[in-house]
Amino acid sequence: MLASRDWNIVIGSFPVLAEGALVTIYLSLAAMLGAVVLGLVVALMRISKVKFLDRTARVYVSFFRGTPLLVQLLMLYYGLTSFHIVMDPFPAALIGLILHFGAYISEIFRATILSISEGQWEAAWSLGMTRPQVLRRIVLPQATRISIPPLWNCLIDTLKSSSLASVVTVPELTRQVEEQSAGQFVFMPYFITLAAFYWAMVGLMGWVQEWLEKKLEIPGGS
Amino acid sequence: MIEVTGLFKAFDGINILKDVDLKVRPGEVCAIIGPSGSGKTTLLRCLNYLEVPDAGVIRVGDFTLDVQRASGDSRLIRQLRRHTGMVFQQFNLFPHKTALENVTEGLIVVQKMPRAEAAERGMLWLAKMGLEDKASAYPGQLSGGQKQRVAIARAMAMEPEVVLLDEPTSALDPELVGEVLLALKKLAQEGVTMVIVTHELGFAREVANKAVFMDGGAILEEGTPLEVFGSANARIRSFAAKLGHSSKQD
To answer: Is 1.10.3720.10 the CATH number for A20-215?
Structure first.
């Protein structure tokens, strides 16, 4: 079943797979960046004293955390055509990933921001800082550090979930493998290779996480 | 100097401060004492708006803030805070910044002082607190007494009109209390105006020029520490006796 002939076919299509992997990496990195920025904005809206901002953010999180990513992608790519909005596959997938994971990441940031003790706020206020200054200089740097492990869970999920972009015809890794395997009539070797690609990429991310955690470590602890 | 008149504060309909008047002259050290729940910490925190008072007028130096007119005006509140320094029971140092960065943070961010100048002033105050060799240490690497001295340097570097201290030695191990009290004594001798909520009656007697005894959200007695501790008032006598007793056990 897993004959070496099959493996030779897989190895022969590596250039195509590498192209797909590059699209996956590009799509995922852009989605992670977008989702982190969006997540931070939404988290700040959630802790804002302006009711309207808080409510808007709640509705956003409720919808994008409450519905499957696949459904969101289908709506963006196919659904919106009913409103004469036609998006290319890549931007549709990117926007879908950002909106979906931005919702999860906003909750991570909200939790870690709220975990910074009231005393930190009070000390900064006593110096005469404004609320944005306290956030930027005192609270967010500390919150970011403790956000890393849960944030990385979410970013890893973003990378893996980018495989769903194959459904909206983005020529990323999973789609390339699907097409190759169907065309060549070789299955398990392709899927093992596909899994190995993702595993390797996530492994790399784990390495970045460790590096980042070390870098952000505070001497003497917090 | 700091002066407050007609200060009221209620939490959930319960009056914590009832028409409190207090005046501390320049260079004076005022110790606020009293049993827990008497409102002394709330009074102190109202003075720089960490608690929002319901009514009253707060005057620090030449800056006056009428609570009923200022409520919600964050610019006025920040101005009030720039005139006061605060030292907390739990230190509240910024753990991600070195001792020096803790001291210079307000200078750079709030007073917009150039970094080099801020560092110079920060080192000056760390040195005054006997911590010049700890400038690049992080709070997690310092003892409780060292942390509190950094916190005092942080408040002092802003050159406030008055420093507010909320039980600055209560969270310290007994053997570390002395070094913080000594630092405060030095500041008092230099003429720094201070309002200090404390249970250290010995320190209050030795360093404060003025003592205020609070009970039930009001000032029961005020005067020199000797006058207040020597008061014939039964509440004060029993309070002082209890503290005296517990400090002997230490």
So the answer is: yes
